[in-house]
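Ticket #4471: structure export looks truncated?
Reporter: QA, pipeline team
Priority: medium

Steps to reproduce: submit the single chain below to the structure queue and open the exported record.
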Amino acid sequence: MATKARGKIVRRLGLNLFGNPKYDRLLKKKSNPPGFDKLRKIRKKESEYGRQMAEKQKLKFCYGLSERQFHNLFDKAKNMKGVTGDNMLSLLERRLDSVVYRLGMASTRPQSRQLVSHGHILVNGKKVNIPSAIVKEADVITVRDRNASKMLVRACLSKHDHPLPAWLSVSEDEVSGKVERLPVRSDIPTIANEQLVIEYYAK
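Actual output as written to the record:
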């Protein structure tokens, strides 16, 4: 997705969904969404369906999923035990690209997807190049034993300024992490109203 397109999405939804600091600067500079006057008129008439779709779009864009991927993930969450919304958010966070990002091995989720898809990441010692792979409790995520891979990850870790989630840990050498437990709802930052997303798919 082009930078310009991401910028429009960020302005339209009012959130930096891509993790890059430049979109925080964009929101400060241009706080109103594109076509603000027209959009303001539309929002006055916005339906419940429109609000539900907007919340779904926030999660979809934030985690970098296609419409089909997101729908499949929702179906999986619905068939799990427990609260569907909590399950859905847990599955999103447990995607390998999201875990790599949360560990600080990548500066943004798009970068973490690239790291995984290019074969830089190992799970329990085996190369996994599928960003949507779901990690499990006790999984160990490491960087391939290549200088280029380790240099890239260490550069990201040195600039990483987000707190490490309680369900993850990073080793002292800073090129490996572990899933200490599965995330619960309180571990996951609120990006969207997941209940509205559930209602969107319930129709």
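Status: closed, not a bug. The export was complete when the record was re-opened. Leaving a note from the reviewer for reference: The beta strands are 121-123, 126-127, 140-143, 168-170, 176-179.
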